[in-house]
Amino acid sequence: MSKRIQLFDALRGLSILLMLVHHAAIDLVGLHVLPNRLVFNPVVSTLQFVFASVFILLCGFSSEFSRHNFRRAGLLLVCAYALSLVTSFVPSAYIRFGILHCLGYSILIYALIGKRISRVSAKTWCLLFLLGYAVYVLVNAGYWENPDHLWMLGIVPPGFASADYFSLMPWFFLFMLGCKLGCAAKEGKLPNWVYSFRSKFFAAVGRHTLVIYLVHQPIFYGVFYLLGLYNPS
Question: Where do the structural domains in the chain lie, given as residue ranges?
Fold first, then answer.
C-alpha cells in the first residue's frame, strides 16, 4: 500500500500545532505576559508528553513507508545541528539534543539495522518504551552522579542543559513501535476508517512539519516584537 494515509498526516499536523501553542505560551511566560502556573503544571506537562509521543510515533510510521531514510536522517541531522549552532549563542535557548536530533539518529539506526530488528513485536517495543522511560526517570532522579557524555542515551550528567531534550532512551523504542504500526498499515491490517479518514487542513499541515518547526520561533519573536512584547535589547 503506497497511498498516503491521511489520518496520520492529520495527527502529525495536530501535534505540530499543539507544539506551536505550547512554545508560544512558554515564550509569553518568559516575557511575563502569562503566569508560570498556566504553562508549568501537571496537566500541560502531560499533554506535552502526549503530543510529543504521537509525533515520534508517527515519524517511525513514516520511516516504514520511505525509500530514502538515509537522506531523511541526513536532512534532519543537518537541521538539528544547525539549530544547535544558532541557539548556542543564547544559552537559555540552547538545544543540545532536541527532538530533531533524536528523530534523525532514530531514522539512521532504522536505515542501518531496521531489517535485522523487524521481527521484534509491537508489544515488545511498547514494553521497552515503558521500561526505558522508567529507567530514564530512575537514573536521572539524583540518587547518584551520572557520568558525562551519555546524555544522548538519556543519562544526564550534572550541569547538563538543553532547551529541548529528547534522548534516544526511551524515545527510540517508541519510534520503533511507530515502524511496526507503519508495517501493519502497509499490510492493510488497520481498521477501515483509518484508511478512509479525511482532514485536508490538518493533513496539509502534517506534510510540512519540519519547515514549521524550524521557522516558528523566529516568527513568534517577530510577532511579539511588533506587538511591543519583546525587546531584544
Answer: 6-140+160-226
